[in-house]
Amino acid sequence: MTRYLLKRLAGALLVMLVLSVVIYALFYLAPGDPARLACGERCSPQQVAQVREQLGLGDSVYAQYAHFLQGIFAGRDYSTGTAALHCDAPCLGFSYQTDQQVTQLILERLPATASLAFGAMAICLLIGVGSGLLSALRRGGFTERALTVLTLAGTGTPVFILGLLLLMVVCAYLQWLPFPSYIPLSDNPEQWAWNMLLPWLTLGFFESAKYARLTRSSTLETLAEDHIRTFRAYGVGERTVVTRHALRGAVPPVIALSAMDLGTMMGGAVLTESLFNIPGLGKTLIDGVRDVDLPVVVGVVLVIGAAVVLANVVADLLYAAADRRVALL
Which CATH number fits domain 102-327: 1.10.3720.10, 1.10.10.60, 3.40.1190.10, 3.40.50.920? Predict the structure, then answer.
C-alpha cells in the first residue's frame, strides 16, 4: 500500500508541474501585454514600461516561469520602483485591480466553495445512491421506471435552469424559504445552513443522476454473481444479502467517482455560485475574467487544477482501500 501511495503522489506531482506550465503559457505567453493589463488603458508608454520592469516581463520566458515557481514554493519580491514588496509563499502574485495577494483572496473565498461542494456532495450521494439501490431492488417495476425518469431529467436539465426553478417554486410561489443570500458559517450557522440549502439541492440533484445509474448497474452486476446466489441458496435473508454483500460491490466505484467529483465541484460550481451570489472561487474566476485580472485568473485556475489532481489521488487511495486488489497492480 505504501508503494502504491508513493507512485500516486509522484504521478500527481508530475501532473501538477505540467499543469503549471500549461496554465502559465496559456495566460502569460498568449497574445497581449500583461503590463498594459496591469497598468490600465490610460497609462502612458513610460508607465507601461515601468510596470513591465516591476513585473519582470523583460526577462526570458524560462526566467519568468522560474520566478513563478519560486513564488509558489519560496515566496517572491516585487519591485514597486522605489522599494521591494515581498509576497510570502505560496505566492500567486497580486491582483491588478485591488493590489491584494491572490493567495489571500483565494483563502478568503475558499470556505464558501468548500461548503457548497461538501454539502452538495452529501445530498448527491444521498439521492443518487439511495435511488440507484432502490431501482436495482425494484427492477422492472413502477418504482424503477419513475426513478429512471427522474434521474434522466436531472441529467438533462442544465444546472442554472434547475436553480431558477427551485427559486421560483420554493422561494417565490410556495414561500417556504426566503431568497438565499450568503452568510458566513461563523456569523450564524443556522442561517448559513438555510441559505445554502437551495444551492446544495441544485448542485446535488444535478450531479446525483450519474450516481443513481452507477449504483444501479453495480448493484445488479453484483447481485448476478455466483456468491450472491450461494448466499440465497443457504437461506440468507434478502436484506442481509443486499446490505452486506451486494452493496459492498457497488461502493468502490461510487467512492472513486465521489472523490473526483468533489475536486471538480471545488471549481466547477461557477454557475451555481453566480446564480445564488455565493462569493466562492467560481464567482472569483468569473470576476477575474471580466476584469482581465490575469494573476487572479491564473491563481484560481491553478488551485482548481490542483484540487482535481489531489481528488484523483484520494479517489485512487479510497478505491484501493475498498478493494485491496487494486494496490497490487
Answer: 1.10.3720.10
What are the cell numbers at 272?
451555481
Q: Which residue has the cell 451570489?
A: 277
What is the three-class DSSP state of 117?
helix
Query: What residue segments make up the domains of the chain, in order of their start?
Result: 34-91, 102-327
Beta-ladder partners of 76? 87
Residues sharing a CB contact under 8 Å with residue 320, sequence separation 6 or more, in sequence order: 1, 4, 326, 327
pTM of the model: 0.81
Span 249-304, pLDDT tens digits: 677 778 778 877 887 777 667 778 888 888 888 888 888 888 878 888 888 988 88
Query: What gap in Å lies between CA 198 and CA 91, rounded to an integer?
Result: 35
| 150 CB-near residues (< 8 Å, 6+ apart) | 131
Cβ contact 303:243 at 8 Å: no
Pairing of strands 84-87, 76-79: antiparallel
